[in-house]
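Re: your question about Secreted ribonuclease

S., sorry for the slow reply, the queue was backed up all week. Below is exactly what I fed in.
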Amino acid sequence: MLAIRTRRRKAAALATAAVLAAVAAPSLTATPATATTTTASTASTASTASTASTTNTDYDSTYYKDAIGKTGASLKSSLHTIISDQTKLSYSAVWDALKATDEDPDNSGNVILLYSGVSRSKSLNGGDTGDWNREHVWAKSHGDFGTSTGPGTDIHHLRPSDVRVNSVRGNKDFDNGGSAVSEGGGSLTDSDSFEPRDAVKGDVARMIFYMAVRYEGGDGFADLEVNGQVDNGSNPYIGKLPVLKAWNDEDPPDAFEEHRNQVIYDDYQHNRNPFVDHPEWVESIW
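Result:
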């Protein structure tokens, strides 16, 4: 077992190095260590610099071996069993984890903020204007799980977000349309929904689908499900399903998202988001 783990870690290290090399576009100038932000357009370029051209099948014969060849409910059930084997973090530990998973590839002192695309100093984590905080992409009120260890601390759907933009999103469902969010990097919102910037629409969708597979109601938390509506309130649902499926297709996993998945697997929760590795499984299940 030790030998297998050692080989996996060596392979992961090589994969990580390749990802970082792909993400670091030569045309981008690294932000000085003293800077706290870059423009949203620069960060957006960094996070989408290298779009994955092929499906990640590196773990098909090992991690996903019990899911390969299945479809529909059978696939969802197998993936649930696989990804439920994870190390759980405390909510306070999430701060440091996000500083690693969402590190700006052009400035190791910064993180990329999900909705705005801004690169901001890791040290500016908190609750004040100008800070970044921990955004629950699956809004924690949708199923009332709060910040409890489990869905409330699962970093596959927790991302750094500007405090004010995070507040604008609130617990809204995801859908197309609305008015521009100030300093939101192109994100839109209306009274009952939120549309993230184009560069992370697929990321958001795949985080939602992960949560719907990982939390099925058997571990003391609500059975989280994706549905076809918005304004779900405190019910354990998030929509809209057709929109999220379209976002998954339109914005495939890029190097930043794949690297994030690998860091979570190697260093923190030791489970993967299967829809980053196999985005086509979304259509197979839903």
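The first helix runs from residue 2 to 23. The mean pLDDT is 86.

Happy to talk it through on Thursday.
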